[in-house]
Amino acid sequence: MFEVHIKINCPHCQSSKIVKNGKKKNGAQNLLCRACGKQFQPVYQYKGADPGVKQTILRLLERNNGIRDIEQILGISRNCVLKTLLDQGNEIQIKPWFKHYKSVQIDEVWSYVGRRKKGKYWLLYAYCPESDEILAYVCGSRSAKTVRALMKKLQGIEIEEFCTDHWKAFAQVLPEEKHKIGKAYTKNIEGVNTCIRARNRRFVRKTTCFSKKKENHLAALNIMFNYRNNHKAKHHTF
């Protein structure tokens, strides 16, 4: 007779420093990673509890797969997909990379939340074409209040100029001496709008795909913008 040794790496950090750590109530062996301190099982009775499956859910969400699509592809429950969306999305914070920006473009894109009859739910975001980076975003009504909320998120960084279209709420809030108005100054962010519509079906015009709850919508935006910023930084493609 001979023994077969199977090497197991941590699904969270890929470390090989794994030790046994008791058993679950169902009798399944529990393992502990000494590198990151997280526990896991070598085999999961329910696929949705597997950290590897959760990473796959995140990858699919980043690539514009819908909740029901992921449910069918992976053979897991819809609640598991939604929980992963919220858990992963709520951990993400979109923050500017630098303390100084020469030029920042601001624009708005609409979508729906809850149901279409309630009207449009606006995404307002700041984009720097030099670093190809989404600096910050807010969601709400198409009003000066939403512009102020975005400017609050940009506090603490120095911006030499803001470029927007002719929407009057921008002129009400942005400092006049730094404000450049006109479509000629927002060509870059208009291109990003097109990418957003391609990467997130919630923003496709006349879409029937939208979040039922605002928290799901915001978590999806966090995942999308975080993926875009990180992917741009590594590969300079979107």
UniProtKB/TrEMBL annotation:
Q: Does the keyword S-adenosyl-L-methionine apply?
A: no
| Function comment | Absolutely required for transposition of IS1.
Query: Which superkingdom is the protein from?
Result: Bacteria
Which residue ranges does the record assign to the InsA N-terminal zinc ribbon domain?
6-36
Record-given protein name: IS1 family transposase
Residue ranges the record marks as coiled coil: none
Family note: Belongs to the transposase 27 family.
